[in-house]
Task: structure prediction
Amino acid sequence: MPRPFLTVLTAPIPTTGRRLYQGVRRRVRPLVKPGVPLPKTSPYPGHYAVVRSLVEGLRAIDADFNFNPRRTADLARVVYAPENASLLQAAEFKRRGRIDYLVAGPVNALFPDEAGGVLQLPEIDRLIVASEWVHALCADAPRVLEKSVACPAGIDARYWQRSRPPGANSALVFWKSGGEAFCEQVEQIVRACGLEPRRLRASAGEHALFGPDDYRELLEESQLAVFLSAFETQGLALAEAWSMDVPTAIWDPQGEAEWRGRTFQAGSSAPYLTEVTGRRWRSLDELEPVLRGMLAERAAFQPRAWVLAHMTDEICARELYGIIRSGAAAMSDARKSAR
Result:
């Protein structure tokens, strides 16, 4: 069977010895621990939302790829590794001549010197960042910056889809940044606009404090959503709200933000916001007129239609696949010309 064009690698390929050991262990486990189920493993190792979107999107467009092969013999000559242990392994494969073109991002690290400087590996040929403003975080590493290109991840528009009309007077308050007093002030303004706030506490990274079903249920009930986040490299939770046809009022301070103890200037809290998906606000005195305007012009917002046109799994996977194909072809052409 010929190798595919692309391997998506988010779990390092085990050695032959490790693979044999795992096979024996699986076979003897029912004898050693009868009736005890195997530990749960993620079908999409790494950043679940990003990896799931990519893999399912590539499958939907019938791309020529494989996902986390178990043997190096099945590894493609082009590898995309948005997970650090896999990226380090792929860099070693490239040093040995086993692969030709290596792509990383957008979830390996936020800064070039983060995670042991993994983004500065010379073996990386292309770095995916989640949106245009993230380029600024690479400004002090020009070699990283010149490799970077913006491409968002998609969302599953079939899962993030309404099953019923929203409640008459409910609004989601997605609280990720800012103190609790700030969140309470926001909720008071929401009430002044005739809406009952439903708070959802969030944290940096993936949905660590709630499950997708919880979030979807709150979106089902909501006329609109207010998002409190100091920065977003893409804002997948926003895209999920838009896919549920919920317009968003987004706090976008574009001020000093923090990531893992490091402060920096944030470029955006909603890099993909448009006129049909919501509105921005920067200070509390702006929020009430924004909300009243959104309620008065509710028919002007078409957030789900925007997602279906711009940010589904298939659309974003097709864009990324094209970036990788064109980059690999350009490198191949350059090598042929140099001969």
